[in-house]
């Protein structure tokens, strides 16, 4: 049986996509308000679980079930290009699912449940019969929850020795998950042609590029505005001002994105999303201050 080259496997697992859940896990660790001393082994294991395992699994699953769409949109990818022969894409997705669960088991019940839910969402997003990605509303919600909310929750749960995080931490995780729905929409502008042909109703396909850009921007901005209000109510005005400042800069960039959504979606993803995730860390430190 022909085997894929290691370079093709690495490309399938897309290391560049691992950063958001790893960052969110770290934010959960910070938001727990608990000291890291003596917890570094499980923190490192959790970061690996969020990125090279659960996120990598989601990428392999998506590429396998998207191979026909990718043959239109991005034929250079490992599976449609033939560099990932036969059913190797599926085998790797299954293997990484098992490895992720084995690692998650070491992080306690709450961490295992959160990781298990993330894996279920990863498969439900791409695989039939659910294939949530066929609808931009449901699919992007699943991605946002998996990449941000569940990773944040897992980080906080690991620090709390398997206990569920504080409700304020869960509220921040949920808000940033909602905002990530808009971030996921940014990735859909580049694949509109193939999505139309294959019946995938992403938001740019359903709403048109202009309306989808406005919706994505609003979905990213509104949860951050709520975060600012929450931080003020928790007595953290400096952190609230920090998130508000980051949001203001994003607003200026969103205006440029909305003016030319197809041309500037990847630009905004690369330049604006780092401001979004910076606000996550500012919020996590604010919550740490509340718990001190």
Automatic annotation (TrEMBL):
| Location of the protein in the cell | Membrane
Record PROSITE patterns: PROKAR_LIPOPROTEIN
Q: Enumerate the UniProt keywords alphabetically.
A: Cell membrane, Chlorophyll biosynthesis, Membrane, Transferase, Transmembrane, Transmembrane helix
Membrane-spanning intervals of the chain? 12-34, 40-65, 111-130, 142-164, 170-191, 212-234, 240-259, 266-287
Q: Just give the chief location class.
A: membrane
Q: Does the keyword Transmembrane apply?
A: yes
Q: Which InterPro entries match?
A: Chl_synth, Prenyltransferase_related, UbiA_prenyltransferase, UbiA_sf
Membrane topology designation: Multi-pass membrane protein
Q: Name one GO molecular function term.
A: chlorophyll synthetase activity
Entry's Pfam families?
UbiA
Q: Which residues form a coiled coil?
A: none
Enzyme Commission numbers on file: 2.5.1.62
Superkingdom of origin organism = Bacteria
Name this polypeptide is given: Chlorophyll synthase ChlG
